[in-house]
Amino acid sequence: MFISMFGAVESGIIYAIMALGVYLTFRVLDFPDLTVDGSFVTGAAVAALAIINGVPPIIATILAGIAGFLAGTLTGLLHTKGKVNALLAGILMMTALYSINLRILGQPTLSLHMESTIFDQLGSVWGTSIDNSLNGMLGIFGIDRPPSTWAILIVMLLVTVVIKLVTDYFLKTEVGLAIRAIGDNKRMIRSLSANTDNLTILGVALSNGLVALSGGLIAQLGGFADVGMGIGMIVIGLASVIIGEALFGTKTISRATLAVIGGAVIYRIIVTLALRFDFLETGDMKLITAIIVIIALISPKILQAQREKKRRIEKRRALEQDIKEVG
């Protein structure tokens, strides 16, 4: 049980990078970008192909992010310069990327099991003393099956936190504030002579860069890149954003991005727990994701309706009490 939860947190932290990208488009830019399903695979495919061809894993991972950035740029250009509807631009780019990703891979699935990934290199330089100390602490709580290494969890947590902090800083810069303003009121920011087209392109490009970076890391973690591994990725990203916002709030940018990371980890834990039921199979994960998103979307509205109903009842009782006192 602990090992499966540990794995869920481990992968959840990497998926959080993708969720931050989804947050940039859907929440900050108010841009319904469906390129995510394709750019995630693009990142995985580019990283896998680069590693197989002898490129150092860290460079391969950076190339994955650049490939996603370019894919996002094309989506932004389609929307802003080609005047294509945002939703349709994402769908068109996602469709095109399927063929592009298949070309990059050369086959539906590309294995990395015989290659040295960024996590293999990380494990080779990671000291066992940290693992022994942390596993010893787990032993105190009666956990007799500790993870083989804490390297991936700790290092990826640090990387994700750095990306979060950079995102927070960027969204508080002049350019970042302009991008946020586009999501709130595009007409207003255009009236101030800001180039909304370039800002939109930049926002969508950065979003898909993060998504592809996450895809490259997930491919190395799983040991393969598959042309279909991005199906439903946009829903997973939205689930992470919605769950995080519902549980942790969004009063500030820093809190919102932290909520997205927390939401991504919680989402992976929920899916892992759900798959422990005998009647559910691995193939049901997309269904589970859809149900989680539906619940996350509907629950706040139901709770708000209940609060409104309770407030009306209390108001009516107070009014009836006042009438009785007057009578």
Structural write-up:
- It is a single chain.
- With 327 residues, the protein is mainly α.
- The chain is built from 13 helices and two strands, in the order ααααβααααααβααα.
- It has a two-stranded antiparallel sheet.
- The radius of gyration is 23 Å and the shape is globular.
- The mean pLDDT is 88.
- This is ABC transporter permease.
- One of its GO terms (cellular component) is plasma membrane.
- InterPro entries: ABC_transp_permease.
- It is a multi-pass membrane protein.
Features:
single chain, 327 residues, mainly alpha, two-stranded antiparallel ribbon, 13 helices, globular
Short description:
It comes from Oceanobacillus indicireducens. The chain has 327 residues and is an all-alpha fold. The chain is 77% helix and 2% strand.
Protein topology:
Elements: H1 2-28, H2 36-52, H3 57-80, H4 86-105, E1 109-111, H5 118-125, H6 128-140, H7 151-170, H8 174-184, H9 186-191, H10 196-222, E2 224-226, H11 233-248, H12 253-274, H13 285-326
Antiparallel strand pairs: 1-2
Helix pairs in contact: 1-7, 1-10, 1-11, 1-12, 2-3, 2-4, 2-10, 3-4, 3-10, 7-12, 8-10, 11-12, 11-13
